[in-house]
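Quick look at the format.
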Amino acid sequence: MVALFGSAPGQWGSIEAYTCFFLAAGTGLRRNEILALRWSDVSSSILRVESQFVRYSDKRSAPKSKRGRLTEIPHRVEEALEAWHKLTKFPEPESLIFCGPDGLRRGATWWLKAFRRAMSALKIDYTVRNLKPHSFRHTLVSRLRSSGGVSDKAIRDAIGHGTEAIQDRYTHQDEDSVRGIGKAVDEII
């Protein structure tokens, strides 16, 4: 992970791409959740994930888990977000965090090209290893689980895995229930 996110923008080519993928690696959010984030979704190291973009559309829907969630932003990722917020042409609360020069949403093509460009710059053959941006999500979950410092339920809640019994779908999170995730991620990245 250090090779990927040691310094900005590095192999990512832009501060925006660096920040976007650092957020993906540090929170495990899905592509369409990240690309739907607005600055108003960020508040004192907590990220509110309430929607995602529908594939190939500007329409929004609930996240894949069918419910919103809160997740803690690791300190280093939060610093990158703050730096990007100071540089973006669209810092307003309702602006997308990651958007094109016109303020409109970024799409899957931008996402994939930015990832492949960074992997190529690092001489990582993403095709042989079958690496995709979604691999950050799996890596984060695996490393958090193996660290033993965070409960499986806290990981599921932060990541948005909807595999618990139905009553878990209706369990409401509060900010205290997600504290600790960011510190654990800071220790592994």
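Next, a different chain entirely:
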Amino acid sequence: MERLPLPAKFVRPLGYPKVSDLPRHRQEGLRAFWLDGLFASLAGGFADPYYTLYMLSLSATNAQIGLVNTLTQLIGATMAIPGSAIADRTGRYKSLSLLAGLMSRSMWLVMLISPWILSSHHAVWGVLVAWVAIAGFDALGVAAWTALSADLVPVRLRGGYFASRNIIMQVVRLLAIPFAGIVVDQIGEPDGYQVGLGIAFLVGAVSLFFFSQVPEHIPSTREDRISTWQVVRQARHLPVFTRFLVSHSVLMLGVMIGGPFINVYLVEEAGFSVGTIGFVTTVGVLATMVGMRIMARLYDRLGMIRSMWFGVAVPLIPVVWLWVRHPWEAYIVSILAALTWTGYNLGAFNLLLASTPDEHRPRYIAVYTTVISMVGATGPLLGGWLLDATDFGPVMSLSTIVRALGLILFLALVREPKPVEADRPESA
């Protein structure tokens, strides 16, 4: 009997592939990994969209908002390579990912209690440090997590499987985000945010339970060791990986210049309430869900690169936000932004897996994560400084220009990759 995360009548319309020809343990692993994503996204919906607003409720400055985003990128760059080294040397991809996830989720509790144990002046710094620590623990496990997902999901199933997983993640996020916003509106600030963080921690524990059921990576019996510097040199022989890394880095620099300040704009300039901002985010999640279902159907025919071409309007998103003065305008922009990103993001993750070899994949993922984090750290710092010195207009305009440069590089340089290495045997 085929093992599915939910009854077939629910998961098949989402694009979940047929897995009856796979070994039982592989089916169980795919099921557990899918459910882990569901509960992880549900937990994140109560915490992730609101950390900036939580900090603002504790009297955070624009400089502190920029600082927290910069530090999260820097800690990501710092922790990714050690995490990949541990994963590569031990071969314990699941164990490292599980430990990192446990530590990351525990930081939600630190964010929750900071206003209780610290003075009003220092509470915002407690939240800031905890949020940065979350980024650090996530970066520690990201290379192992990505390599484990490549191990677990056969190449021929990746399009439908990851699309269906992403869709259900968006569905539950769609439920969590407005509910969390309502909680804040009803209870008040900052107490409402603290309730959301408590819920996030409990639901996050459920996601860790399912992730613990994913089969562990079986390392190669060979004892060859490779340093990160050797990986960097070998990456020159992986043109698709290298060109994608360069273009995507520039694009993400542009994203991080303006992205962290969109909610700040909606509060300070548009005058939106927390509930309204939560609903704007919810509308975007719904649009992402619809877009992901459409892309799941198109992905197998278009391939990775042409799927990513759907992101051609990504550079326009920041300046379009500047026109928003009423909630209905924000809903439209949120929908358009979500649909624009959907094809690009689905293709980008699969491109990262397809452009790196199975052997030492955590190391390549760490190089990718480190570079993205380093350039991303520059964005919020520059955006925060520019916002304090000028206004939202120059910040969003610069974000648009840099995004456009990254997208032009991608369209000009990156082509559909050939398989880097065959799948692992089914027993792996």
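Confidence is low (pLDDT under 50) at residues 421-428.

See the schema section for token definitions.
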